[in-house]
Write a structure and sequence with these properties.
Elements lengths: L5 E6 L5 E6 L4 E6 L8 E4 L11 E2 L5 E5 L4 E6 L4 E7 L5 E6 L6 E6 L4 E8 L2 E6 L10 E6 L3
Length: about 150
């Protein structure tokens, strides 16, 4: 079961599988909708954040693609239940990744999130947060297209 609120659901187009992801939960759960007592399996990624992190399943229901909080991308084999590819994608959290409807070898990913730096000014028992709008190599909003042969 998920530890946070569910933020993304995705049906497999070829079978009775439902994939679910949640806030502050590193697992993407796979359910057989004919028997929802417990998940069939789960895939682990780094998504311990309040940000919604959207994943996708290919047209055949055999590959799952997901982004991580550190900007890397993971490709999973749904049937075997493990990661088959891990590669660097962005310099920031990947909020969304999706296969192309034309080919499951093409994917699109987007990254970025709001960053804050805590300043040492003490205001009524709490630290004041000021938005850090400077874009650096570690903090970048971006969109990328990938060719992922497998």
């Amino acid at each position: 079961m998920h530890s946070g609120g569910i933020t993304h659901l995705k049906f497999s187009l070829r079978d009775f599988y439902l994939f679910s992801g949640a806030r502050r939960d590193n697992n993407i759960l796979v359910w057989d909708i004919r028997n929802t007592i417990q998940p069939l399996r789960y895939f682990t990624r780094d998504s311990n954040t309040n940000q919604r992190m959207i994943f996708d399943v290919d047209e055949f229901g055999t590959k799952l693609i997901a982004g991580n909080r550190n900007g890397s991308i993971m490709l999973f084999d749904v049937n075997k239940g493990h990661c088959i590819k891990l590669f660097g994608g962005h310099f920031d959290c990947i909020g969304s990744i999706q296969f192309s409807p034309l080919s499951s070898e093409i994917a699109l990913s987007g990254s970025g999130q709001r960053h804050y730096k805590v300043v040492g000014k003490h205001v009524e028992e709490e630290f004041e947060c000021i938005s850090d709008n400077d874009t650096t190599n570690e903090q970048m909003n971006s969109l990328r297209i990938w060719h992922i042969p497998y």
